[in-house]
Specification:
There is one protein chain. This protein is α+β, with helices and mostly antiparallel strands and 92 residues long. The chain has a four-stranded mixed sheet with strand order 2-1-3-4, with helices on both faces. The termini are far apart. The model has no long low-confidence stretch (mean pLDDT 83).
Amino acid sequence: MELVVRHDNNQICFNWLKKGLGNGYNFINKIIPDPGSPEFLNLSERIKNVIKLDKPDLIISKYVNERETPIVIIEITQSKPVSQHIEQRMVR
């Protein structure tokens, strides 16, 4: 199965995912583009909706009817102090 893995320019996250999923997949490595960039404008609406407000660490997707469709979105986070939780989750 061919999987597109978009990441936030952090090759370590991409390598971690490949190691975890094993060799049964053909991975396509891509960077998550910035909103408004030419590459962003060419993305499918489903991918645009994921990265419009905030960038996750990894987006795993596959092509369905020649359009990139997200399967899993991963964000690797650390907990902020209790008083700052609202700031951490505002965009979500």
